[in-house]
Records
---
Amino acid sequence: MSPIMQAALTIVIGVGGCVGYFYLSNQILDRVLFPARGANAGRNINRANAIRPWLFLFPAIFALALYLAYPVFETLRLSLTDRSLGGAFVGLENYARMTDDPKFWEALRNNFLWLLIVPAASTAFGLLAAQLTDRIRWGNIAKSLIFMPMAISFVGAAVIFKLVYDARPEDVAQIGILNAVYLQLCGDSPITWLTVPFWNNIFLIIVLIWIQTGFAMVILSAALRGIPEETIEAAIVDGANPFQIFFKIKVPQIAGTIVVVWTTITIVVLKVFDIVFAMTNGQWETQVLANYMYDKLFRANDWGVGSAAAMVIMILVLPILVWNVYNARREMR
Amino acid sequence: MTDLKLSAVEKAYGKVKVLSDIDLEIKTGELVVFVGPSGCGKSTLLRMIAGLERITGGTLEIDGMRVNDMPPSQRGIAMVFQSYALYPHMSVYDNMAFSLRIAGQGKEAIDKAVRAVAEKLQLGSLLDRLPKELSGGQRQRVAIGRAIVRDPKVFLFDEPLSNLDAALRVATRLEIAQLKEAMPETTMIYVTHDQVEAMTLASRIVVLAGGGIAQVGAPLDLYERPNSTFVARFIGSPAMNLLSGEVVGTGKTTKIRADQGGGIITAAIPTQKGDEGMKVEIGIRPEDFVAAEGDDFAFEGRVGITEALGEVTLLYFDSKSSTGDDPVIAKLSGIHPSKLGQVLRLGAAPEKIHLFHKGISLLYRGDKVFLPNVAPH
Ligand SMILES: Nc1ncnc2c1ncn2[C@@H]1O[C@H](COP(=O)(O)OP(=O)(O)OP(=O)(O)O)[C@@H](O)[C@H]1O
Ligand SMILES: [Mg+2]
């Protein structure tokens, strides 16, 4: 069977299964378990209504429990055992081995760099794009273009940018646009950008910024539209210029949304894996935590240290996640 | 000295003309109120004066200088918005200080100005609060304070009280009146739907309708000498009754025969020889009706609904006024012992009677009168 047929079949079965589940389970509840007829019709309706939310929530809760809650505990357990000793309990030894590994510290340091740059840059560019495209006629087209990278998978984006950063031997035409431009402007010989330590981190970071700017723009654009027009007019009458209106009136009014966008992107950054995996695989000092975890878990077959790295990522994400949800809820009120 | 002069001002959105031929002069220290039916362009006119809306035709002058293209902040105006438009992220103090900071004034000067205004508006204890921590009336005062701080020459209000409840509205209306008293040199332009606000606050009222100015004048002027049936019915509540009739005698006063009932009444309005036989509309305000003696009645009708309010009694008659749908209404003082179905004859003093011919008051014959092509209510 061709992959396209497989994909189509999967979609049909998946969506059909969902619809079928909701329809049939609802039918069973109303017709068989608590039918709204006979002596207890009223009581049955109340009972059915009390159960219905749980019925509909069940698939989600079940999937979350199986694929999210259970793995957390299992990972925690694995991080305290050693595979080579047949899964024996070794306490914090895996964590000790991990912190002795310079690659771990490199990953942590790089993650920190990503954390510093990506949320800030994406939010700033997104805000800029949202503001600039707000009032112009072709603004919506511009927005669609900026948003489009969101539709590309991280791996897809990584492949695109691998081509952008591509380097060919000196005497061959360059297909990487960066080298092509570089040679035109000032360079003598093409540079293999992804192997230049430190800067190669920045080149990877740019990919994620490219993807996340669209997300930030869409959310912030909606927030900007929500600002009462009269407060802006009041500021105009008060004599504020466009920059003052933007920074002193508009931005503070959407500060809550900016925080939500920022923290959401922060969480994405902490989990970043695909881009590094596909472009450098952590070589040339570009390792990040998620890729480090993958390396240990599936390449080195060391489930102990791999799970320990996973726990570190989770502990870093958790507080930001909590804060994010808290802020998002406050924004919705 | 801040005179405001609008000459042939016009506003068009694309091809749709919302306002045209607006000629208006406003003198320093006046409080001018714009009234008119919803959608007639009151806010638009105010916003054009503020500079928030482009003027598409004619000229706006402040102090004899054309300001059509001058940005709002340089026109010496301040505006109070209907929704207050306070900056939600700033404290009351910062809201009021914002314009001064933008203007680059020194910290101490700003502090002095803000505190002085806060004192005047009893906002002293609220300076550290955010707008969301204030009541509606307090927010309104902050909005006014924010406008005053700039020491504007012209104050613009767009329905500033419409978000307040009835009691607060009265209190704030009085505060605005006092404010005006305390700032005799400041010109104020005030947009409202509320007739009571217009009548009590205004030194002059501008009745806007159908894209033009129907009449400009002092409040009681408009009440006593409306230039058209539109203004006559727009000012005053319940609206003036219009009854059809015919001129039967001319001179210093005019004799008219009312079509409904057929009595002959006298109006203290001069007419010329030759006006006999002219079809007119007789305008009588509900509160001007009195019980008629003998045959000199303006109106005879059967009482439909009565509303006894104690101080006055409103009688709604079965007969319609000449506008078509509206019943004839009488507002008689005290408690009136009329019953459903009772036939009453009503008249009015000669000086309380208005006469209109083709919509224009006979008092304004020969003047240029703009007749809006819309219903007053
Ligand atoms: N941006 C716009 N484009 C087209 N027409 C507009 C626009 N803004 C206002 N109008 C029209 O201009 C007219 C005047 O509007 P305006 O807001 O000045 O009325 P208003 O007298 O203040 O009414 P209200 O008493 O309801 O506040 C309305 O008929 C409105 O439909
Ligand atoms: Mg308005």
---
Amino acid sequence: MAGDGAGVKFTVRELGVRYGERLALRDVSMDIAEKKITALIGPSGCGKSTFLRCLNRMNDTISGARARGRILLDGADILAPGTDVVALRQRVGMVFQRPNPFPQSVFDNVAFGPRVLGLASGRLLASLVESGLRAADLWDEVKDGLAQDALALSLGQQQRLCIARTIAVAPEVILMDEPCSALDPISTLRVEELMRTLAARYTIVIVTHNMHQAARVSDFTGFFWIGEDQAGLLAEYGATAQVFTRPRDRRTEDYITGRFG
Amino acid sequence: MSGQDARHGQRRRRAGRLWVQRLGFLLLGLAAVVVVAPILVVVVGIVARGIGTVDWEFLSAMPRAGMKEGGILPAIVGTLLLTLGTALVAVPVGVGGAVYLAEYARDTAFTRAIRLAIVNLAGIPSIVYGLFGLGMFVLFLRFGTSILAGSLTLAIMTLPVVISTSEEALRAVPTEFRTVAASLGGTRWQGVRTVVLPQALPGIITGVLLGLLRAAGETAPILFTVAAFYLPQLPRSPLDQTMALPYHLYVISTQVPGMPAGVQNGTAFVLLALVLLLNFAAAWIRRHFRRRRPW
Ligand SMILES: Nc1ncnc2c1ncn2[C@@H]1O[C@H](COP(=O)(O)OP(=O)(O)O)[C@@H](O)[C@H]1O
Ligand SMILES: [Mg+2]
């Protein structure tokens, strides 16, 4: 599977997810490479977000959602009962589709995670906030207005603020669910550049509707599809160059060429 | 020929419709006047006849000469203390209950029963609360007729309003923020305390003030639980009785012959001013905090 050679961060085996009675994801197995960018593409409703939410157990917050199978993070099964989900979510952070800063100051947004986790306070907290904002390429724009309301920022800045907020808890993995779909092309480009920089330090998994984006930023690409039983499945997975130029799966090829004209 | 007839008919029908619309507006306007006019007449009457009596002595002195002279200080202090006591009980319990219902409780038969009870409690006449307070706090728990018993009774009456408005305010905060808080490793309570509650606060404060407003103006719940007929001294402990504005107003309006109209209207004016003040505070908080929110 993909990820050969590099370290493996997640080992997913026979993952299935149900919402109530409805099977949303069937039998997904994949290895996710450490400190690489893995893109997940595919049509709407094929379970990309569902898969992503399994990686930090955010599906737990949806009533009726149940996951089966195994997801090993550095070798330990995070689906096992008794997993400390708070600690898990500190290690595996998440950036959402719509920029969603808290209606608080820029500083308080980035400080939220370190505060609730009791990581730092005072001067140490301030330096954590600064390094988070620097890492998210936002520091220069907000350093004179850390007390301003986060909602006063532009959408692109808000999304980078959300990335800073995630980085501030010092995660190992950053999950991004269509992080650019609410942004204009220039903001999108900035976030993409940011992802490339971040990949040196973090494992990144990104869901995207934009196949150019997947091709541009990712090292590996997983292609999800909806089976005859309406359950999502992983149709193809490999190095991004291979998936986009020599897809093995007929459905991948149709999907990609359909979009690329 | 026939085309002209049709056009005539159309015009006549349109005129008819316009006439109906005007009549409708007139009736609605009349209804509004019928609702507002008596309130205005009463308020203007009270203000006009009461404001002459209200001076510093009226607000700061003990009643004298069978309450016909002097001031109404003990009644003002009593009402303020009762409102404070009500707040001390109703706010933590009510907001806590709302947080439980909105943030923690699953939708079960049990929570549905609780909600049904809250809705129904809000509709119970205040005299019933008064009798409950007499049985529960004054007699059974042996608090006697006291500020403690009166505050508890008023708090129980206020709780349904506080709970339902607070729960509504909490539910109006988008789920997304709770999700984000959880994704950053926050516990549910941390998300509620640091993100959800601050955003729901204006709504909660409004609800609390509206509840307290009702508590401050009620006579029936304090009738048997705390209110003193004539007690020209300030209470010294929560177990003391006290005078209170609404009950005092009732007393001097119906129970004491030969009461000067100025004292009656002055007392009514003070009570009205107090309630309006709380009302304006609620409106101001709602306006002030509801600016610029994307949802
Ligand atoms: N919270 C939910 N409750 C019930 N069903 C859901 C929920 N979220 C997603 N689903 C269902 O799971 C399937 C996969 O959805 P999703 O993971 O959001 O797909 P994608 O992100 O690829 O568009 C869809 O059929 C969707 O209806
Ligand atoms: Mg999705």
---
Amino acid sequence: MSEYWRFLQDVVIPALNQGLWVSTLLIVPSALMGLLLGIVVGALRVYGPAPLRKVNEAYVSIFRGTPLVVQLFFWYFALPHIQIMGARLVLSPMAAAILGFSLCSAAYHSEYIRGALLSIRQGQINAAQALGMTKVQTIISVILPQALRRALPGCGNEIIYLIKYSSLASIITVSDLTGIGRTIAKQTWRNIEVFAALGIYYLLLVTVATLILRWVELRISLPGFEQAKN
Amino acid sequence: MNQEHPILRVEGIHKTLGEQLVLDDISLSVNKGEVKILIGPSGSGKSTLLQCLNFLHTPDRGRLWLEGREFKASGKRDLCSLRQQVGMIFQDFNLFDHLTALENVRIALVKVKKLPASQANRRAKEELARVGLADKAALYPAQLSGGQKQRVSMARALAMDPKILLLDEPTSALDPELIGEVLAVIRFLASTGMTMIMATHQIAFSATMAHEFLFMEKGRIVERGSPSVLLAAGATTRTMAFCAKINELSGDLGTAKNQTP
Ligand SMILES: Nc1ncnc2c1ncn2[C@@H]1O[C@H](COP(=O)(O)OP(=O)(O)OP(=O)(O)O)[C@@H](O)[C@H]1O
Ligand SMILES: [Mg+2]
């Protein structure tokens, strides 16, 4: 037993801590950019001019309709072979992963945002317009503040999913939590200890994210916008 | 009356919604300080007409002038500028659900009129006080009664210093005991010379302050005139017949009068 703990302490934990840092560097920017892009895409899908609406619908269909692994392979392995105006874009594994996660997660966020936007009653829009607000002012000052509150539970879930699917970055050679875990497991053949510890790390990440999301939810909750607690 | 300079004038307004011709050649003109009352059966086009007057609906045809200046629904500038000067009160209040009473009144002052925050705040507080809700400034719509919500929505419209106020059945969504507080504000506005066009079923109440009743049916104004003429004892007008029908349904004229403060 003590041997088991020593292995965890000396080998697994230091290595996974390093992986945790890399995973955080993957997850935080992807979550933020994904959410931001998701809001823009969601708003364009509902309020954009027809051609932009179509483009954004197509974007969402593609990114929701293909496996994330395939998307990551595309950004990491295929993109360098595509010549755009004589230039080739070669992404580092990290950059390819963040790009892939942001784009994929934005597609899902945009679904929640779209649903929330459509749930805003026409009367709210009429009232804003009747006061002389422009379309953009109406969206920014009246619709989005309400829609984001309604979309938060869904978007929060998507961020939790992102934490878990960030483990796919290891497939394109990123040394994130999962990447490091697999390396130690291969080297030491101690699969049980390593993967159990790895699972606990993700559990911790998800717990922290859940607490943050709950805090945000509490901070922005208003009378009339209470979310059903689950 | 000063017929030469109406505040608001429309001519030949047509509007089709779906397959149906909802407004069929509507013309009207309102002078400063006048109160015009739109009545008519459900579906006759009262709401649609009011929404055409601030271009929430774009008329298919017809022209609109505010203080002699023509406005076109196709021009974005015109659209926002017209709406800033024409206040609207909705049947179901349409307060912004995510803002407090004070913020509801303030938001357009800041975003549309571009007033500095402190000035907008002061004005918003004054307007809330004017409708008797100074102590509810910090409450959200979900925490207000229907009557209070409608009064906040009136403060919100009035804060913009509208040249004319359009009211679409402002008391229809209210419980009977809450109607009086909203009618009191409307009566007060009329007494201060606010120009208004109001769709309503509160016939007895509006007869006391209306300069003209406009009776609508199937998208047309089929009868117009002063309430004293249209509702004179023994009159055989459509308006009279319609009122008799309403009163049959909702008791008698006396009940309606009791609701007026
Ligand atoms: N978006 C729409 N699409 C199609 N038809 C509509 C639409 N909105 C309203 N209508 C129709 O237009 C007609 C006039 O509606 P409007 O709401 O203006 O009547 P109203 O006089 O205000 O009635 P009420 O007293 O019930 O409020 C109705 O027959 C209605 O069915
Ligand atoms: Mg109506």
---
Amino acid sequence: MWEFLSRLFGRENEGSKAAAKERLRLVLVHDRTSVSPYLLETLKEELLDVISKYMEIDQAGFEVNLEQGDDSMALVANIPIKEMKRALSKTKN
Amino acid sequence: MPGKALVITSGKGGVGKTTATANLGLGLALRGHKVALVDSDTGLRNLDVVMGLENRIVYDLVDVIEGNCRLAQALIRDKRTRNLVLLPTAQSKEKDAVKPEQMKELVKQLKEEFDYILVDSPAGIEHGFRNAVAGADEAIIVTTPEVAAVRDADRIIGLLEASGLYDPSLIVNRVRPDMVRRGDMMDITDIIDILAIPLLGVVPDDEGIIVSTNRGEPVVLNGRCRSGEAFGNIVRRLEGEEVPFLDLRGDGIFEKLKRLVGLR
Ligand SMILES: Nc1ncnc2c1ncn2[C@@H]1O[C@H](COP(=O)(O)OP(=O)(O)OP(=O)(O)O)[C@@H](O)[C@H]1O
Ligand SMILES: [Mg+2]
């Protein structure tokens, strides 16, 4: 009865459609670029190796994802750093 | 002027390709066009049964290709209209009994005599798919509002482009207005946003389709049932007419009330 009333008054509870859309969006990002989640993970590890030569990365917050824009695709990385490596900052100064 | 060859394809199986081919073919023929339907699902012949023509088959597509008969001998005339023929495929042969170049040649021959050639594609992306698209000028993709079907449709769009078939159009089949309304099914705009191809039609999920398939009488013959009306609209869009899409949401409680009190 409550369900009926809430629907009658247009209170949309979020159905499974939202989940379908989001899962489809994610899976298509990978399909379209033919980048598998595995490949992305490997890329992430190699990125980590390279960047770690120069800075100390906060590994827990390190994220690399493919994102679908309106009509383009982007590789978006979020790389929190703890500190610059001392040796390097010295040569810079 | 040679006719136009359309391939009806989907990637995922069981989404309604054969049903759509039968209905669009019969619909076009009833409106005066000369139509040839080609079943390219070799080994899993279906279109003959959906059309109710299974008892008339003597030769098939593989016979034509192997030279056992002439093309004209294998074309089965429809029992409802003289404008429609069906080229059935072989039930007991492998898919690779036919090569894409042979399909292309065959469709080319049909285009000389018919206005529309509709090729019913098998599910999948392998040999049978490549045969089905070989002679096509345009593609129609059929999907249902489900994650797996839309995902496969997206893959098919890419594969069609790779074979030089750009701008396919989309039929969304088996839409359940009640589920869309309560937010449990992706709606048409969701799907079009994702696939980014033009919408050709929306067909509701309808028991009438099963009943009509049982009888071998495509539902387009029955304009009073919603799926029949939907296929009829698609036929007119194929002819270039602008036909508004059925409002499948108009069955909600408010709509029913409004109809009751004469607001619409
Ligand atoms: N709009 C609809 N409403 C209800 N049932 C439907 C609808 N469209 C198709 N069906 C049913 O779904 C089943 C599959 O349809 P169909 O054979 O046309 O799909 P297909 O894509 O050709 O399958 P395959 O990939 O096996 O060739 C059939 O039983 C058919 O009657
Ligand atoms: Mg089929």
